[in-house]
Design brief:
Length: about 110
């Protein structure tokens, strides 16, 4: 979440065997530089590896003509709100462990 705004202000313009390239508008030059800071770059390259199954080097730069599309996040929030809070509570690892230790169960009232 801390670097998502920097990533989202750019566009993924290329992915090949070795490189994933992000492009940013001139107004977003700072974001382009920020994603390439060592800790951010390492983190993002780890996500790229998880998504693609291979190690990719992240490159970033300013490119003319870059236009962003807005991302509809409503669908994500709807999925979260539809989940039953009691089911979420029951699925919590800490609650499961406590139930196991005390040989207890949760009853519906």
């Amino acid at each position: 979440p801390l670097i998502s705004m920097w990533v989202e202000s750019g566009v993924l313009v290329e992915v090949n065997d070795k490189v994933a390239r992000m492009a940013y508008s001139a107004e977003q030059k700072l974001a382009s530089e920020y994603v390439l800071q060592a800790n951010n770059r390492t983190f993002l390259e780890g996500i790229l590896k998880d998504l693609t199954g291979r190690a990719l080097r992240l490159e970033s730069g300013v490119q003319a003509g870059v236009q962003l599309r807005t991302v509809d996040r409503q669908s994500d929030s709807l999925a979260e709100t539809k989940r039953d809070p009691m089911e979420e509570f029951k699925d919590d690892p800490l609650i499961r462990k406590a139930l196991e230790i005390f040989k207890a169960r949760i009853e519906q009232s």
